[in-house]
Amino acid sequence: MVLPYPPRHAFYNGKLQSAASTSSFQSIDPSTAQPLANIHTTTHAAVDSAIASAQAAFQAWSATPPIERARILHKAATILRSRNDELAKVETHDTGKPFSETSTVDIVTGADVLEYFAYLVGGGGLNGETIQLRPNAWVYTTKNALGVCAGIGAWNYPIQIALWKSAPCLAAGNTMVYKPSEFTPLHSTLLADIYTEAGVPPGVFNVVQGGGEVGAYLTKHAGIAKVSFTGQVSTGLKVAGSAAGGMKYVTMELGGKSACLILPDADIDQAVDGAMMANFFSTGQVCTNGTRVFVPEGMKAEFEKRLLDKIQNIRPGDVFDMKTNFGPLVSKQHYEKVLSYIKHGIEVDKAKLLYGGLDKPKWLQGHEKKEYQEGYWVQPVIFTDCRDDMRVVQEEIFGPVMSILTYSSVDEVVSRANDTNVGLAAGVFTKDLNLAHQVIARLEAGITWVNSWGESPAEMSVGGWKLSGIGVENGKRGLEAWVRNKSTLVDMAGEVATVFAKL
């Protein structure tokens, strides 16, 4: 069977390594459940070789002046933008996300981050501090690259997350061994090719392929100085524990169960639009989704009426039709997981089903593309009259499932919003900006929005609280996560102060 895409292999020493595996699996198109490409699992020996390649390249790359690294990364960003639609097509096939989304978000925002860090290091972002202690003594600090870093990608924003990790890593002078998710790996070697075309030297950016076993071997490897991981909390705890055992630096961007607070004075149309973006964008497969929607008791009826009106604007369909704004779930495994949560919400939690259900979207009936019938399509789902103790309210579903909860006071809703062991994101909708700032200050989450949801520009450092993560990505603080500090005290007094002088 001839597949739509060529096989994916490991990439190190500046080239594809077709002999670096002994087994393979297939990447699947979520919209049709049809195979896209054969993915060759990287052996442990080949992972060792990829790390050795990165180690060999580190000394020269870290010694390259930041402005020269910046020029190379700028060129890579330019190439990414010039190939936007081509790469977006790959992302749509691999993730199932509509082309209307991948062509305007995924590559664009990844290139923005690459460009941001190129500008940052090119403009002195790696400069240290100089402090005069006394007339004849100074302290200066330097920011030094860490070494070989491991990047473990996620399946929901494959190339964007690969760039969120590799851009600051490479800009700071590190080298990287990157493992994409086994569910969405097609972008990985395309990005390696783009870096190579831009002038990134062999060994600076490397790729290994495979599932969790490959990732575990990579992250515990003695040659790795830092692990940057994006994924679910349970896996992140294992990765962080393994990294801590080797005293490695870590950045963990994990899951959440974020609260979307509609305050009593909010514009109801803006609130509904925000809640829909916080639940149904990217078919709900976004870690920062605000799936716990808190609505004032007196606003509930009107909020739900407007929500049911606007939900008609969700348009599943041909993923390459620019009018389509809602795709399938990423994999059969995830499809079954999300359906099990919906079923639990209906049958066990006894939440009121306001919209959607277990059936596939009606548009599939009679659609001219019969292959879509086998895809991992679900309906957007809205549960209402929810309680805080329901499983669908407490656990991250990572699908298009909204839970509506009511409250009677601001103090009450803040307390309930914080009653969770995760704290990735939160947001409020209100016309009262003083109240907005007061509520935001009390919410236990690392990423917050006021009258908006989901935007994470390159300039904005983002990271979770509680079990939602360690460290931040992007922004100026995002660069600090990829360097280690060295402080040096220089005494020019001409003598050494000592307690061992002759009396």
Automatic annotation (TrEMBL):
Top-level taxon of origin: Eukaryota
Single annotated GO MF: metal ion binding
Gene3D superfamilies documented for this protein: Aldehyde Dehydrogenase, Chain A, domain 1, Aldehyde Dehydrogenase, Chain A, domain 2
Active site: 253
Catalytic activity: an aldehyde + NAD(+) + H2O = a carboxylate + NADH + 2 H(+)
Database matches in SUPFAM superfamilies: ALDH-like
InterPro entries (alphabetical): Ald_DH/histidinol_DH, Ald_DH_C, Ald_DH_CS_CYS, Ald_DH_CS_GLU, Ald_DH_N, Aldehyde_DH_dom
Enzyme Commission code: 1.2.1.3
Domain Aldehyde dehydrogenase: residue ranges: 21-487
Coiled-coil annotated residue ranges, if any: none
Leader peptide range in chain numbering: none
Keyword NAD part of the UniProt annotation: yes
Keyword check for Transmembrane helix: no
Keywords recorded for this protein, A-Z: Metal-binding, NAD, Oxidoreductase
Family: Belongs to the aldehyde dehydrogenase family.
Protein name according to UniProt: aldehyde dehydrogenase (NAD(+))
Species of the source: Polyplosphaeria fusca
